[in-house]
Design brief:
442 residues, mainly alpha, hpI Integrase, Chain A, 3 domains, three-stranded antiparallel beta sheet, 20 helices
Length: 442
C-alpha cells in the first residue's frame, strides 16, 4: 500500500505482466493497438497527421497480426476517404508509413492530386491539346499515327485498363499486319505487302510509353505498365562513299527539276545541294528551309535556325562552312529567291528526281552506279549525312562530330558512323608475332 499523501507508482514487473496479458487477450502487441481499427482516424490522428496507417481487425483475427495487410488512409480535399493496401509484415508496415508521410506532405503543401478515372479518348484529347501541340508537324503526325494504330488494334476503353497483357496483345496483333503507307490494313493485305517490321512496332511503343508517362504525371494511373520492346537486328549503316558521290555529282546534268527558278539551272541546283549535304551532314529538310539571311559569306558560316523544319534539337547554331561549299552556294545567288535551294514543285518529286540522277550515274570504270541504299534501294539524302559522319569520324573526336551533326546524344552519332571503315586502319597496325612475319616473307 502507498503511504498517505503519496501517489501510487506501478513497478516495472507489474508493467511487464500487464503488457503480456494484454497481448494474450488481444492477439496483438500493445504498441500496435492504436493502429488496429477500421480506416476511420481517431481525433488524435486527425490532429497529428492527415494520413495514417492501420490494420483491419477482421484480417488480424483471420490471419494474425504478422500476416494481416497494412493500409494507408487519408481524406482527399473534397472529403472523400481513400485507402491503399501496402502488404503485410514489416515491409508492408514500412511501405504504409512512407506512403502516409508522402500523402501528408502533399495534403499539407496543396500538391495532392486525386486519382482520376479517365477514358483513352479523353487522355488522347488532353495530350493533343496540351502536349503534342508543341511538337513540330512531322513529330506530331508520327505521334498521331502511332496512337491511332494502338487504338485501332488494342481498343482501350479506360487508361487504367492498359496493362502489360493488353500491350503484349497489341504487339502480337500488330506484327501480323501488313506494312503499307497510304492504304488501310485490309487493302495492304490484299496487295501482299510485307508484315510490319519490329522497328516500326518499337517506334509506336515509344510513343505509347510517352503518353502513359504523362498520364502518370497527371495521376491518371499509378504506374506505367512494363513494355517489352522487340529485338531489332542492328545492321551496318548505309552511306555514300567518295567514288559513288563523284559519279552522282557528274550525273546531275540529267536533272530536269527544279524548273521555273530564274537564272538557275537544275544541274547547278543539285550540285550545290548534294555538296552541302555531303560536306555538312545537314538534313534535307534543313537544307530546303535555309534562307540567304542565314548565310554569312564573310564569316564563312551558316546558321541553323531553331524554328527551321528538320532541326530536331530546336537549337540555333552557327556552323562553319568549307570553302568548296561556299563556292557552290555563290553560284546559286543569282536566283534572287528567299531560299538558297528553292523547290516549288511537289516535295514528293524531290526523291524520284534524285533516283533518276543515280540511275544514269556511272563509276570511273564506266559501270552503272550500284544501288547502295537500305534494302538494295537507291541512295537517300540521309546517306549523305551518314557519309559525312563516316568520312570525318577518323579526322576528329566524336564529341566534335556530335556538335557538327547537331545530335543531342553521342550514341546517335555513333550509329551514323560505319565502324568497319573506321577500324580498318587500326587493324592494319595490329601486333603480329615474329614467327608469322618470317613465314609471310618466306
Amino acid at each position: 500500500m502507498a503511504a498517505a499523501g503519496k501517489p501510487y507508482r506501478r513497478s516495472a514487473t507489474f508493467d511487464l505482466w500487464w503488457r503480456k496479458s494484454s497481448e494474450r487477450s488481444t492477439g496483438e502487441p500493445t504498441g500496435r493497438r492504436n493502429e488496429v481499427s477500421n480506416n476511420k482516424p481517431t481525433e488524435r490522428q486527425k490532429q497529428m497527421k492527415k494520413a495514417w496507417t492501420y490494420q483491419r481487425r477482421e484480417q488480424i483475427e483471420k490471419y494474425g497480426a504478422d500476416k494481416a495487410s497494412w493500409y494507408c488512409a487519408w481524406y482527399e480535399p473534397g472529403g472523400a476517404l481513400r485507402s491503399k493496401s501496402c502488404g503485410s509484415g514489416s515491409i508492408g508496415r514500412t511501405a504504409a508509413k512512407r506512403l502516409a508521410d508522402l500523402r501528408h506532405s502533399e495534403l499539407v503543401t496543396g500538391t495532392y492530386k486525386p486519382k482520376q478515372k479517365m477514358t483513352w479518348e479523353k487522355l488522347r484529347s488532353d495530350y493533343s491539346t496540351k502536349i503534342a501541340c508543341r511538337f513540330d508537324v512531322p513529330s506530331r503526325l508520327a505521334v498521331e499515327i502511332a496512337l491511332d494504330n494502338f487504338q485501332r488494334v488494342a481498343k482501350p476503353h479506360s487508361v487504367a485498363a492498359i496493362d502489360v497483357e493488353k500491350i503484349d496483345d497489341f504487339i502480337a496483333k500488330r506484327l501480323k499486319e501488313s506494312a503499307c503507307k497510304g492504304s488501310s490494313a485490309p487493302e495492304a493485305k490484299k496487295k501482299n505487302y510485307p508484315p510490319v517490321s519490329p522497328a516500326t512496332v518499337n517506334k509506336e511503343l515509344r510513343y505509347l510509353r510517352m503518353i502513359l508517362n504523362v498520364a502518370k504525371e497527371w495521376r491518371v494511373i499509378q504506374d506505367v505498365p512494363k513494355i517489352r520492346f522487340l529485338k531489332v537486328p542492328k545492321k551496318l549503316p548505309t552511306y555514300i562513299p567518295e567514288s559513288h558521290f563523284e559519279a552522282i555529282y557528274k550525273a546531275c546534268g540529267v536533272a530536269r527539276k527544279p524548273y521555273g527558278v530564274p537564272n538557275l539551272e537544275p544541274a547547278v541546283w543539285w550540285r550545290g545541294l548534294l555538296t552541302m549535304a555531303y560536306m555538312t551532314g545537314w538534313r534535307i529538310s534543313q537544307l530546303l528551309s535555309l534562307t540567304w539571311d542565314d548565310i554569312d559569306f564573310e564569316d564563312g558560316s551558316a546558321t541553323s535556325r531553331a524554328e527551321a523544319v528538320g532541326n530536331k534539337g530546336k537549337r540555333e547554331e552557327r556552323v562553319p562552312l568549307h570553302p568548296i561549299v561556299l563556292s557552290h552556294l555563290k553560284q546559286l545567288a543569282g536566283s534572287f529567291d528567299k531560299y538558297v535551294f528553292p523547290w516549288y514543285q511537289n516535295k514528293r518529286d524531290l526523291w524520284p528526281e534524285f533516283h533518276a540522277i543515280q540511275a544514269t550515274a556511272k563509276l570511273s570504270d564506266d559501270t552503272p552506279l550500284p544501288k547502295g541504299g537500305k534494302g538494295g534501294r537507291p541512295y537517300s539524302f540521309h546517306d549523305c549525312r551518314r557519309g559525312y559522319a563516316t568520312n570525318n569520324a577518323a579526322l576528329m573526336d566524336l564529341f566534335t562530330l556530335q556538335q557538327l551533326m547537331q545530335h543531342k546524344s553521342l550514341e546517335t552519332t555513333r550509329e551514323y558512323v560505319s565502324m568497319a571503315l573506321r577500324l580498318k586502319e587500326p587493324v592494319q597496325n595490329l601486333f603480329v608475332p615474329q614467327s608469322l612475319r618470317l613465314s609471310e616473307t618466306a
